[in-house]
Design brief:
This protein has 5 helices and 7 strands, in the order βαββαβαβαβαβ. The protein is α/β, with parallel strands linked by helices and 224 residues long. The longest helix has 27 residues.
């Protein structure tokens, strides 16, 4: 049986690049997003759910468990961005971003990590951001959520050390995905989703006695 990876926000951008990288190397992939139209293939297991809600997370956890297969890799990649500042962003922005970017990863990890701990095997990737370590003036609640996600990654790493489960936080800079549609900047000013996927795969392939705790990746010319 092929090893199994669960990727949230896995239908496009960085998430889809990670799905493609791991399936090309013999994995089956549970690909979760609000819409999974167009996700098909012998190694693809699409599942539609809104992970900004607790109900959506529970639906995904129940689906994964219904397969009766161990999860080898979990990639908490689902997320959303809204520009703004704390004093003037729209009411509800904080709750929306915290639920989507942080609570989804928290509850999904809690739902799946017990089996990893029992097997003393597994790797959890948390898709953070350079916004996890850099305060941007138009970052508002997005920066808050990404700082929180990095904090959760570090706590989880400490908790899971004695249980044989690896935790890696990934902090990508500007990556050319649909969120940058309409930009006037040249493509070579951005990283490619494959850059993040390749780094994720490289971290996964280390021996059991080693873990990459954090991966910080920026465009060659720096942040945008």
């Amino acid at each position: 049986m092929n090893p199994l990876i669960v990727v949230t926000g896995g239908t496009k951008g960085i998430g889809r690049a990670i799905v493609d990288k791991f399936t090309a190397n013999g994995f089956d992939a549970i690909v979760c997003a609000r819409s999974v139209d167009g996700v098909a293939g012998p190694n693809m297991l699409p599942f539609a759910a809104d992970l900004s809600t607790r109900e959506g997370v529970n639906q995904l956890v129940n689906y994964v468990k219904s397969l009766g297969r161990p999860v080898d890799v979990l990639v908490n990649n689902t997320g959303t961005f809204q520009p703004g500042q704390i004093h003037n962003e729209a009411e509800g922005t904080f709750e929306q971003l915290m639920n989507t970017n942080v609570a989804s990863a928290y509850h999904l990890t809690r739902g799946l990590v017990g089996e990893m701990m029992a097997r003393r095997q597994g790797h959890i990737f948390m898709m953070c951001s350079t916004a996890s370590i850099t305060a941007y003036t138009n970052g508002g609640s997005y920066c808050i959520s990404k700082f929180a996600l990095l904090g959760m990654s570090r706590v989880l790493r400490e908790e899971l050390k004695p249980h044989g489960v690896k935790v890696t936080a990934i902090l990508p800079g500007a990556t050319l995905t649909t969120s940058w549609e309409g930009t006037d900047l040249p493509e070579d000013r951005f990283m490619k989703p494959d850059d993040v996927a390749d780094s994720t795969w490289a971290a996964y392939t280390l021996s059991k006695s080693a873990v990459v705790e954090e991966i910080l990746i920026r465009p060659q010319l720096g942040d945008i």
